[in-house]
Every structure is written in structure tokens, then in C-alpha cells.
């Protein structure tokens, strides 16, 4: 426990340092007064469309979570949890957010931590598969001209998609064999000592989690739900971009989002995303031809607006989780 606490403290300290550095870098290209002015000028319709699109995106996402977890998880519970998950992972430093979300899933939904972590991991996996696939199709069709560094982004996206597809193929081919082997190893371990019992239980949980990961028709259904969810999320981003004065089309919006997602995978995240999130949006926008100063301003506006909308959805749905726990 002490070691885990030490790791958490180091992550928080690193996040604080990253926050200061990236906030300073973004601040060199824009100003607080300009950001406030842009936020003030944001049409209320853009925020309402963003809220509506993200609220609708939560429905296929909730259905997906239900399919990824054993048992009969209520749709409302899955929907509310996902809204809380968005805020948690946007606020807590990388790595700790997923752990905190799995803990919340256990406390609020009575889902074992290891199964919760597997469900969250598979959901992220599916998100990447769909987004990268759509992005590469759009680029291959010549719908989005990328600026400096575009080749690097396309190469990284292609390599990552190939790696994820390879993992998915290995899973489909060897899942049952690997799970059976883990269960066999668990049975061979004597339970006469605490450490051996822990190893035996860990192997059994790993086999259970492996069997939880879908394939076949369930896998295709999950890909369909993920695609619907991501299209709605892109419409939310499109509404905010238009509200901030950037008249990008849907293809460019997709490219912007994928570049942002790839950058966000870097092990750098400020506390509550301060500094880093705006920087990732700004870099994505500059690759689409937006001037640096304008990109920094719009990137910060996107960060603030998305965070406010996510908190609003979370607060609206929180009574569902609290009511379930009291029940």
C-alpha cells in the first residue's frame, strides 16, 4: 500500500509540473482576456448542440458497457457511470484515472475491479480501432490535407492500427486456449500458503477476464456501437469548432480529433488536463492549417467548453449512481 501511495504521489507531482510547463507554453501564444472573450462569444446553440450530441453518444456507449460486463447492468447505471468516467479520466493524471474509475464501478455498480478494468481497456481498444480506421480512410481518399508532420501522424496511426488489429486477431484465435491454460496452471498451484493462494487467484481472474473480451458477432456489434458513439462525439466537436469560429467539415474534424487522441496517449497530462489538453488541440489544429496563435486560443476554448459540458452531464446523471448505491 505504501508503494502504491508513493507511485500516486509521484504521478500527481509530475502532473503538477506538466501543468505549469504546458500552461506557460500555451500562454505564450494567447491570453486569458482573449480566451474569456471567445468563450463569452460562443453561441449558446453551439453548447446546446454539443451537450445534445454527447448525451446521445452516451446511449450506444452505455449499451456497449453492458455488453462488456457480465450480469444484468441497468442501462441507466451504465450511462451514468460513463459520464462520471469522462470527468474522472479528464481530471486525474494518466493511469490513475482508469484505476479510480474501476474503483467507482466496484463501489457504485458492484462490478469486481478486475472485470471493470478489462471492460474499460476493451472500450478504449474499440475506440482506437474505429477512430484510426476512419481517419486512415479519410486520409487515403484525400479528404483532409495535413500540414507539417502529417506523414508522421499517418504513419503512427497506421502502425498503431496494425498493432491493435494483430492483437485482436491473436485474441480471436487463441483466447480459449490461453484461458484454459491459465486455469490449468491455477489448479496445479497448491493453496497452502498466502502467496500461492494469491497467485492462484490472479491466474483464475486473468482467465475470467480473458473470456470476457468479446469476439465474433458480439465483437462486430460492439464495433457498430462504437462507430455510432464516435460519430456523435465528432458532431459535438464540430459544433464547438463552429462556435469558436473554425468552419471545419466533418472529415477535418475527424482528423483533428484523431491527432488529439494520439497526442493524448503520451504519458503527459496536467492536473484536470490544464495546459496539456489545450496544447494537444492546438497542435492538431495547426496541422490542419490554423495559425498558431488562433490554434492556441481555440484549443483552450475547446478544453474549457468540453470540460464544462462533461461536468454538466456528470452532475445530471450522478443521482442515478447515488440512488442505486442507497438502494
Could you give the count of β-strands?
Answer: 0
How is the main sheet built? none
Uncertain residue segments: none
The first-to-last residue Cα distance is 31 Å
Radius of gyration: 21 Å
**In percent, how helical is the residue content?**
over 70%
> What gross morphology would you assign?
globular
Give the topology string: H per helix, E per strand: HHHHHHHHHHHH
Broad structural category: mainly alpha
Account of the 3D structure:
With 327 residues, the protein is mainly α. The protein has helices at 2-27, 32-41, 44-68, 75-91, 96-109, 113-140, 150-188, 194-212, 216-243, 250-264, 276-286, 292-326. The mean pLDDT is 84.
Question: TL;DR?
Answer:
With 327 residues, this protein is an all-alpha fold. The protein has helices at 2-27, 32-41, 44-68, 75-91, 96-109, 113-140, 150-188, 194-212, 216-243, 250-264, 276-286, 292-326.
What characteristics describe this protein?
12 helices, mainly alpha, 327 residues, globular
Topology readout:
Elements (H helix, E strand, L loop, with lengths): L1 H26 L4 H10 L2 H25 L6 H17 L4 H14 L3 H28 L9 H39 L5 H19 L3 H28 L6 H15 L11 H11 L5 H35 L1
Helix pairs in contact: 2-12, 3-4, 3-9, 3-12, 4-5, 4-12, 5-6, 6-7, 6-8, 6-9, 6-10, 7-8, 9-10, 10-11, 11-12
Amino acid at each position: 500500500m505504501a508503494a502504491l501511495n508513493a507511485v500516486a504521489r509521484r504521478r500527481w507531482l509530475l502532473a503538477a509540473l506538466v501543468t505549469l510547463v504546458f500552461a506557460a507554453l500555451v500562454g505564450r501564444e494567447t491570453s486569458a482576456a482573449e480566451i474569456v472573450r471567445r468563450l463569452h462569444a460562443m453561441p449558446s446553440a453551439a453548447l446546446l448542440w454539443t451537450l445534445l450530441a454527447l448525451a446521445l453518444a452516451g446511449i450506444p456507449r452505455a449499451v456497449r458497457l453492458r455488453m462488456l460486463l457480465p450480469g444484468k447492468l441497468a442501462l441507466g447505471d451504465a450511462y451514468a457511470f460513463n459520464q462520471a468516467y469522462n470527468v474522472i479520466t479528464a481530471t486525474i493524471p494518466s493511469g490513475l484515472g482508469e484505476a479510480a474509475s474501476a474503483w467507482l464501478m466496484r463501489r457504485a455498480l458492484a462490478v469486481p475491479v478486475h472485470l471493470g478494468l478489462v471492460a474499460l481497456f476493451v472500450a478504449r481498444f474499440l475506440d482506437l480501432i474505429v477512430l484510426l480506421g476512419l481517419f486512415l480512410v479519410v486520409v487515403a481518399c484525400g479528404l483532409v490535407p495535413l500540414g507539417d508532420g502529417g506523414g508522421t501522424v499517418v504513419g503512427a496511426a497506421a502502425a498503431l492500427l496494425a498493432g491493435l488489429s494483430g492483437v485482436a486477431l491473436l485474441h480471436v484465435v487463441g483466447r480459449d486456449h490461453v484461458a484454459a491454460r491459465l486455469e490449468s496452471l491455477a489448479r496445479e498451484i497448491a493453496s497452502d500458503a498466502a502467496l500461492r493462494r494469491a497467485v492462484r487467484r490472479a491466474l483464475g481472474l486473468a482467465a475470467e477476464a480473458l473470456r470476457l473480451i468479446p469476439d465474433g458477432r458480439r465483437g462486430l456489434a460492439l464495433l457498430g456501437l462504437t462507430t455510432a458513439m464516435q460519430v456523435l462525439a465528432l458532431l459535438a466537436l464540430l459544433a464547438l469548432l463552429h462556435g469558436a469560429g473554425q468552419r471545419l467539415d466533418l472529415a477535418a474534424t475527424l482528423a483533428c480529433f484523431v491527432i488529439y487522441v494520439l497526442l493524448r496517449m503520451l504519458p503527459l497530462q496536467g492536473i484536470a488536463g490544464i495546459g496539456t489538453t489545450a496544447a494537444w488541440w492546438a497542435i492538431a489544429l495547426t496541422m490542419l492549417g490554423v495559425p498558431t496563435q488562433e490554434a492556441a486560443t481555440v484549443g483552450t476554448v475547446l478544453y474549457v467548453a468540453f470540460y464544462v459540458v462533461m461536468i454538466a452531464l456528470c452532475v445530471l446523471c450522478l443521482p442515478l449512481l447515488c440512488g442505486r448505491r442507497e438502494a
